[in-house]
Design goal:
alpha+beta; two-stranded antiparallel ribbon; 9 helices; 17 strands
Length: about 325
């Protein structure tokens, strides 16, 4: 198999004598993806146009006929859709995989994200391994709640400052990391994110994917008697919508409604600013019942990632 060098501005790559992919305008591509990606999934994200520019968008052509679209770059692929009546999904996945193998650094995994039920078999038959985790998005409209906090708790919003290297960080990031380590350490969620140590729980990404509104609607809960951070709920942007990045309560303080109250506070403070609040939950997470009791509805269950393993060095 001959290697093909990938560049962001190359207009066309041939997949075979019959098929090719052609660089797309992300806005037009996003509208097609909104209609054709998966109606159950898209119905859930009905205001989303899938027009993010984070990864190159391509049209899939059979000769001169546009039959689908995909986002792909070296080592990653996602948001594959087909335009009816075209139905050769498995054939397309095989060809896209071959192109990815030519583009990618084979010392790293080739990954496809958020695999929908209707597509999982295509990727599996093409040689992608399913990760062990199944997840789904949940959402509900923002709304007003009257919250009565226990007077023993001190409730605050986190503060964000520059980290000195062009990024952002929470003022008390180590305190948040310790709270998360106690809340999630050893859990399935930690296994999914490969988090084991205090350093693994240091919040390095979410401060860079938020804004002032979401930061104010995020919550830190302290035990006033001990001064310990006992729970936190941090919000972020998911494309252009508000989402829960992380929510945790340390075990000795569970069962007191803190998770529900932190979410109610977020829903209340975001009302008029964002229409929905979303969160991503892994199958089997005990917190899913909390979300259902607050009126969050479930989206389509998906395989979080499927992948082609990296090649071992000799």
């Amino acid at each position: 198999m001959s290697l093909t060098e990938w560049t962001a501005d190359t207009l066309q790559y041939d997949l075979s004598d019959e098929y090719s992919i052609r660089l797309a305008d992300v806005k037009e591509w996003g509208l097609f993806c909104t209609v054709y990606y998966d109606m159950g999934y898209v119905g859930f994200f009905r205001e989303e146009e899938f027009n993010s520019s984070r990864c190159s968008a391509y049209w899939i052509y059979q000769g001169e006929r546009k039959v689908g679209g995909v986002r792909m770059e070296p080592n990653k692929m996602y948001h594959l859709f087909l335009i009816p009546p075209f139905q050769q999904g498995f054939e397309i996945v095989k060809l896209l995989k071959r192109k990815l193998m030519q583009w990618s650094d084979r010392s790293k995994r080739i990954v496809t994200f958020e695999i929908l039920p209707s597509q999982a078999d295509w990727f599996a038959r093409a040689g992608f391994w399913p990760a062990e985790f199944r997840c789904r998005w949940m959402q509900r409209p923002t709304d007003h709640f009257d919250i009565e906090w226990d007077p023993r708790w001190s409730v605050q919003s986190p503060k964000i400052i520059e980290n000195g290297t062009g990024g952002l960080k929470y003022v008390n990031e180590e305190e948040i990391a310790r709270c998360d380590l106690e809340s999630f350490g050893g859990s399935l969620e930690a296994a999914r994110r490969k988090q084991k140590s205090l350093e693994d729980f240091t919040p390095d990404e979410d401060p860079n994917y938020t804004n002032e509104i979401l930061t104010q609607a995020s919550t830190l809960v302290y035990d006033q008697e001990t001064g310990q951070l006992i729970a936190n709920c941090r919000l972020c942007l998911q494309d252009n919508q508000a989402a829960v990045y992380s929510i945790g309560v340390i075990p000795s303080y569970r069962g007191r409604g803190l998770a529900s109250q932190m979410l109610q506070r977020a829903l209340t403070m975001l009302k008029g600013q964002y229409p929905f609040l979303r969160l991503y939950v892994m199958e089997g997470n005990d917190a899913e019942s909390v979300y259902l009791n607050l009126g969050f509805v479930q989206g389509v269950q998906e395989i979080q990632t499927m992948y082609i393993p990296e090649e071992e060095s000799e």
